[in-house]
Amino acid sequence: MKPVIVVHGGAGRIFKEREEGSRSGVTRAALKGYSILKQGGSALDAVEEAVAVMEEDPHFNAGCGSVLNEKGEVEMDAIIMDGKNLASGAVSAVKCIAHPIKLARLIMEKTDHMLLTDQGALAFARAMGVTEVPGEKLITERSLERWKKNLEADSNPQEFQKDLGTVGAVAIDSAGNVACATSTGGLTNKRVGRVGDTACIGKSPEDAADIALNCMKTRVGGLGGVIVISSSGDWAARFSTKQMSWATVKDDQLQCGIYAGECHTQSAEEALSSMGS
Predict the structure, then answer these.
(1) Nearest CA to 189 among 242, 152, 134?
(2) Catalytic residue positions?
(3) Pairing relation of β-strands 167-172 and 115-117?
(4) Tens place of pLDDT for every residue, the chain, 277 residues?
(5) In sequence order, which residues have a C-beta less than 8 Å from that of residue 40 and are 6 or more positions away?
(6) How far apart are CA 202 and CA 114, in angstroms?
(7) Which residues, other chains included, contact 83 with Cβ-Cβ below 8 Å and sequence gap of 6+?
(8) CA distances in angstroms from 131 to 73, 108, 164, 181, listed in the order given
(9) Is the terminal CB of the chain with fewer CB neighbours within 10 Å at N or C?
């Protein structure tokens, strides 16, 4: 089985000045995950590390780029799932953790639970020796400005939700095992303790993606994006929003895009070389 990884940086509106950063961010994440797969690593390791890369990138609504809740704090959700045995681990409303996705994996592997939230998740992180970071270290100037803007009497918080989203990764390794991971800061100015939804499993990559997006639009009038990978290595990146940053690496070829129909292709080796220069 040839390994494949697909990542996304959130579906919605991406402002022109942030397009290049979003595109390079998902590219770095995809290349990081693919390098693990090429060395014989597991799909689980690949998606964890790919998402961790995006949690470190302020262009994305995850980790250090997360939006703020109504009190001006960062609260994050993350989930990871191993397709080999359907094991999963998740955190919600967690604070002061640089990589919620890594904490989610620890919950999957070190506890009998699937989900820990808020103070319970933080207590577990401390027990596992996970390094805490001051909450303000996760707050970007952009998130702070947006939070303040939404506090104004004439603000429209829904307008600001259009350029937000989750980050995620799906992969299949050389042994044929599939894994996925997702991380998000949620909605801007959300209520304290708010927990977001998680992804659902579907059919073939293209059909599953299209069915999910059509259901979201017809049932609740919502727009979104999804990445899917099958056990045979087929993949899809679909979105009904104006834009979604995505990248994939398969057969040593990197592909990425933001707009519908956009697909830039280059060799993974060439891309890695240009990233390092």
Answers:
(1) 152
(2) 166
(3) unpaired
(4) 899 999 999 888 888 888 999 999 999 999 999 999 999 999 999 999 999 999 999 999 999 999 999 999 999 999 999 999 989 999 999 999 999 999 999 999 999 999 999 999 999 999 999 999 999 999 999 999 989 988 887 776 666 565 567 899 999 999 999 999 999 999 888 899 888 764 333 656 667 777 777 777 777 778 888 888 888 888 989 898 889 999 999 999 999 999 999 999 999 999 988 887 5
(5) 174
(6) 21
(7) 43, 177, 178, 179, 180, 231
(8) 18, 18, 27, 21
(9) C
Query: What one-letter code names the amino acid at 132?
Result: E
Residue with tokens 């390098």: 35
Q: Kindly write down the DSSP assignment for every residue of 183-248, as one continuous string.
A: EE--STTPPTT---------SSHHHHHHHHHHHHHHHH----EEEEE-TTS-EEEEESSSEEEEEE
Strand pairing partners for 92?
A: 117
Q: What is the pTM of this model?
A: 0.84
d(CA 237, CA 257): 10
